[in-house]
From TrEMBL:
Lineage summary: Bacteria, Bacillati, Bacillota, Bacilli, Bacillales
Segments for region (Disordered): 31-50
PANTHER family named in the record: PHAGE INTEGRASE-RELATED, PROPHAGE INTEGRASE INTD-RELATED
UniProt protein name: Tyrosine-type recombinase/integrase
Domain Tyr recombinase span(s) in chain numbering: 171-373
Top-rank taxon: Bacteria
Species assigned in the record: Cohnella cellulosilytica
UniProt xrefs under PROSITE patterns: TYR_RECOMBINASE
Xref: SUPFAM superfamilies: DNA breaking-rejoining enzymes
Family membership noted in the UniProt record: Belongs to the 'phage' integrase family.
Amino acid sequence: MASYRKRGCKCPKNRKCTCGATWEFRISVTDPATGERSQPGDSGFKTKEEAKQAAADLKRKYNSGILSASAKDETVESFMKKFLQNVLVNEVEENTLEQKFAQMEKYIVPKLGRIHLKKLNPAQVQKFITDLGEGDLVAGTIINIVRLLNQTLNKALEWGYIDRNVASMVSKPKYKPEKFQVWTKQHFEYFLQNTKNSRLYPFYLLGLTTGMRPGEITALTWNHINFRSKTIRVEQTVAWTKEKGIFIKTSPKNDASRRTITVPDQVISYLREYKIAQKPNSKNIVIPGIKNELMYNSVINKIMKGDIARIGVPPITPHDLRHTHATYLLSPVPFGLAQGIKAVSERLGHAQTSTTLNTYTHVLPNMQESLADVLNTAINL
């Protein structure tokens, strides 16, 4: 059943309409899940025939299940909460889900949350993305926020709450690797030579010689170190959520993060001596905290800042130890460019070599020079 009416027409009933008034319609549908009735519709049609055609098309979408009658009261906020609580909760780790909720509450809800899901349009989404770019957020964070919105609308489309994903119609920000600072070979050698008495020396040593992520280093146990084969097996990382606090997450960031790293002889020798001198702990952690066996990021940042200031090297973050390691490996890349990048990518635990290339693109000019030097030496013209 459908009803039609002309909005705002002031023309006499027996004369042709000349005021430009448009037609609107309403149809009656019932939600099969709840039995509730609703009257969705649309407006702005020039003729009654156009309104009838649109009403028949909308009715077909509801009857075939393409659209859901449950969508009548859904806002962007209410549906996104359902998506996170019922769908994404089964697909991501707890700490990742917590980050998604934080992104929703801090960035998406204030700008788009109250908009009716079916009335959200491309212009609103485009302005939302543009406003994000004008703030102090890095490109990677903006991309993650937009990805969450796009995932939500894709699910709304799949469930029949909307008939198009307007987030797929806008211009999205391009990925730009975050800027980071790295040390030269001289810097990190000098830093290691002068921090041997630091509580974090094992952390610095592993970060600079293995390229492990900070959370992977602080989650490392002695069971993961094979002194005979001189390798470290990366299988877990340290995570934090409001509900659990700090804990060890046994599933890595991605499949590639679960990896085996060959360690230099000098590092293996140090770790062997360090293990003998270390006081045992219940989790068998290589670098435990003092109050808690797992070391917090805030503690690492504080100690490292103090050591850097004392030594007098350029300031970098704990994660930049990993960047320094990768940059050092890539700069003097040996003959056989593709093989060199692939090996470094596997060592870092990147899922794709393109991630390595995008992150360390600033090193590529030096790599080209190194290749030219190799060719000059190898080829006798």
